[in-house]
Automatic annotation (TrEMBL):
<feature type="region of interest" description="Disordered">
    <location>
        <begin position="55"/>
        <end position="115"/>
    </location>
</feature>
<protein>
    <recommendedName>
        <fullName>DUF2207 domain-containing protein</fullName>
    </recommendedName>
</protein>
<feature type="compositionally biased region" description="Basic and acidic residues">
    <location>
        <begin position="103"/>
        <end position="115"/>
    </location>
</feature>
<keyword id="KW-0472">Membrane</keyword>
<feature type="transmembrane region" description="Helical">
    <location>
        <begin position="28"/>
        <end position="49"/>
    </location>
</feature>
<keyword id="KW-0812">Transmembrane</keyword>
<keyword id="KW-1133">Transmembrane helix</keyword>
């Protein structure tokens, strides 16, 4: 862990030294040209992220302002019928199978101590 931190700080110090050396010898234009590819890459990544988060637009601008469609009477009747057919959340379902006890005898001495 200490080795990784040492490598990190050596890299930071060398990077700062290189930037200061370049600015002192070549000016700020050199610094701008050195950092330009980084700015372009970060800008492209931000653009791609925002484009991906926007989702499909289907030709309607942002894709979020779609008109709300009122369901028909027939659809509402179907939904109401499905809701009535569901069981109440407090009741348990009955399953067509059951647990069958094994034929081995249970011995309390053989049970693990952590149970």
């Amino acid at each position: 862990m200490i080795r990784h931190a040492l490598l990190f700080w050596i890299s930071v110090i060398l990077g700062v030294y290189g930037l200061v050396y370049g600015v002192m010898n070549f000016g700020f234009w050199w610094l701008f040209l050195q950092l330009l590819p980084t700015f372009i890459l970060v800008g492209l990544l931000v653009f791609a992220y925002r484009l991906a988060m926007k989702g499909p637009s289907y030709g309607s601008g942002s894709g979020r302002s779609r008109p709300k469609v009122k369901p028909s009477q027939k659809t509402m009747a179907k939904v109401a019928g499905v809701r009535k057919g569901q069981t109440a959340p407090g009741k348990r379902k009955t399953y067509p199978f059951q647990v069958i006890e094994g034929s081995k005898g249970k011995n309390d001495d053989q049970l693990p101590k952590y149970h």
